[in-house]
């Protein structure tokens, strides 16, 4: 169910895929998402036609390695679970993609069980 | 008011437009959205610079025909209305775009009346 | 903290950057966002591979100058603050980017303090 958008500036081939893998494994490990519950939109921005902006808010020195991870998921995870998720995304983004933790930005948006259709025109989390 | 994002992998010309039409007509038919309340961001991903990931979660066999439909709308629709919306999006996506229902993924995010500005710097749903 | 997505059709160079600046300054002026709290994803659509759709809903005559501004932010701003934000975005989009106010569309999505990780794997708004 989580729908994940990852936006980064274009760089070496394979980085975006590695970031996608990092976020997906972090979701599995920390929130118990099933491995095949894998839904991602991965975009590398060319820096001209489309681009990213970032500041040093909270004294974090960000640079062009910035990665925006936006996750839509059902409400119900505790702050502790979310904290674990953020920590693991940052760790795996560094391990798999060489992205420094200071450049990993995550925002969650929660919705309800009736807000998902996972194929075949159904509303699977509320039946039918 | 609904703001609709549709993301698919690039394929034959016209598919994205057909998907946009399918979602828009489904919103009109099932939620009573006015026909000119039509706000969509349609993106075809090239599969390299930007791409989509998907799994077979809930035993739905998805493939590169996957379509992500993300709709932001005001809170207040019942689960039954949402269920009707999903069913109709899947039907029309197949009819207009040849997209199989198993490949149609929809996620809704709700907000409130003060969360919209529909032009001219106004907050039309709360006055002024 | 606000994460801002701006989507427009490709036009003259610099327009997207000007729109980003307009939205950022409006957030600073009306919501009191710190200047370095600057997180944006700016996309110019080519009109073929990716594109925008729009209608004349509420009798606003929109055209290919349409700009979609989607802002994710923590809950808590009053309708009055949001109203001020919309007004200022429209004013500055016109001043900086030459975009007519009728073409400025804004949607907000709110979340909670635990829904943000602003780098280093932390959950800064809830501690640690």
Structural summary, described in words:
Three copies of one chain form a homotrimer. Chain A has 128 residues and is an alpha/beta fold. Chain A has a single domain (3-126), classed as Macrophage Migration Inhibitory Factor (2-Layer Sandwich). In chain A, 28% of the residues lie in helices and 30% in strands. Chain A contains two helices and six strands. Chain A has helices spanning 15-31, 79-97; strands at residues 3-9, 39-45, 50-54, 67-74, 104-111, 116-118. The first copy, chain A, has a four-stranded mixed sheet with strand order 2-1-4-5, covered by helices on one side. In chain A, helix 2 links the parallel strand 4 (67-74) and strand 5. In chain A, helix 1 (15-31) runs antiparallel to helix 2. Chain A is globular. Chains in contact: A-B, A-C, B-C. At the A-B interface, helix 1, strand 2 and strand 6 of A face strand 3, helix 2 and strand 5 of B.
